[in-house]
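Entry for the shared binder. Reason: the reviewer on the internal report wants the predicted structure included alongside the sequence.
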Amino acid sequence: MVKVTTAWSPYPVRVEASLDPRLSRWMWLVKWLLALPHYILLVFLWIAFLLVSVVAFFSILFTTRYPRGLFDFNVGVLRWSWRVNYYARAGLGTDRYPPFTLADVPDYPAHFEVEYPEHLSRGLVLVKWWLLAIPHYIAVGFFVGGYHWSGWYGGLIGYLSLVAVIVLAFTGRYPPSLFDLVIGLERWVLRVSAYASLMTDAYPPFRLDMGGLEPLPRKPF
């Protein structure tokens, strides 16, 4: 059975970001270059992430548990990736250089957490990462871009981020509405990433929760 969250239940994946009050008008032009050391390390971290996910798959299949140490490592890889993305590509909403750590850094303006599940479904682990997630993969492909026979194409997040920093360059102000939209799209992507990585059985909502903070849970009427 697919586990869903109700309209008033918080999703077990938390993605948040805050916009620097004073952003450089032109630093975004070189952030991708400054982030190269992170990208090199993330190549190796993602290889480890995939290997850990395979081990976790069999652990869940036979024991219904995602080993806590492996879980924390993979959450850390996603957290590290989110911080680097927020700095250099998706949003570009901070000039603070990302820390080299898997752990959460409370005073850094980008955060990612996943609630640890005590037990996960043996049945869902066989299908959620490919079959059940297909509708979300289509949406995520539109958001982040990908590869087409004619070459690489950018996604909606990249285009919106570019518009935001061009406005920043000419006005000195990052448009708050674009920030809210970009973070909402990234929140969707990261929720799907956590679900497809076997970290939760709660199906990602088809809902655009915009803004830097996670929405507060709503009570039923």
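Summary line for the report: Residues 13-196 form one domain.
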